[in-house]
Amino acid sequence: MLAPKRIIIVLLIALLSLLTGWGLWLKHSDSHSDALWQIVSESCLPEQRQHHNPSPCRRVSVAQGYAVLKDRNGLLQFLLLPLEKISGTESPLLLKPETPDFFALAWKARHYMAERLGQPIDERVYSLAINSRWGRTQNQLHIHISCLRPDIRRQLDSLAPTLNQQWQTHQLSGHAYHIRVVADDDPAAVSPFIRIAQELPGARQNMGSYSIAEVAAGPDSKLLLVIKRNWLLLNPGSAEELQDHSCALLTEPGPHLAARQRN
Q1: In which element (H, E) is residue 24 found?
Q2: Is the backbone of residue 173 left (phi > 0), alpha (psi -120 to 50) or beta?
Q3: Which of 79, 156, 197, 263 has the fewest CB atoms in 10 Å of its CB?
Q4: Please, what's the largest Cα pairwise distance for the chain?
């Protein structure tokens, strides 16, 4: 058995190694953290304005203030990004009512996945996710449009009878998520950013620590899933962990390929 002093030394060395590795990772990620912004601002937007061609983006909507870009990871994954410089969930612009609801725009853009696949995709396969300030590598807001993990879909389906428009906490992928149902026809609907700031205690002052996902719940509703960064639990706040960029759900038995998607 190691003596107490040796145990302390080993723990200190391990902690130093962890901090050193984390620092090197941050330095590396910072050097590439504007890559998405450069693609949108220096390529997609100018090409759209000058030649009516959004390349390398799939779409640029100047009127609505967003671009859709095929992500390099995953056969079907796309990203929705603002045309304005917005860093991420911590941006105060996201809490202004006049700011576009980028989640709603991302949900409407899900059809690019089906177009790329070449056949319809059941809505239960789709998922949206944005990572927290600490769970991302890019400093331009981007919403991942991709497939939901099969095990997460099954877990949410099993929870469905108990979920409603009140926030509940459940363990998903080993982390605590706040979950609630959001009706598509809610007359008081607001963006997920505003909803979280209004409804989760303390969130407004610490929005950068929150990561958000959205998936289909039923014919006329979605599930909003929110995770908060927690360093003590080694949780950086990355709802993207609920997604499967290989889209295994598409190969599982079921109606995922045959169902018609809603607008």
Answers
A1: helix 4-31
A2: left
A3: 263
A4: 71
Task: Specify the residue for token string 């620590």.
Answer: 209
- pLDDT given for residue 8 in this prediction: 61
Pairing of strands 221-228, 168-172: unpaired
pLDDT digits (tens, 9 = 90+) for 209-225: 999 999 999 889 999 99
| Under 8 Å between Cβ of 171 and 179 | no
Tokens of 196: 């979280």
Alpha helices in 32-129 (DSSP H): 35-39, 45-51, 102-108, 111-117
pTM of the model: 0.85
- Is the Cβ–Cβ distance between 101 and 196 less than 8 Å? no
Which pLDDT score, from 0 to 100, does residue 6 have?
65
* DSSP state for residue 126 in the 8-state scheme: E
Instruction: Give the separation between CA 165 and CA 155, rounded to whole angstroms.
Output: 18
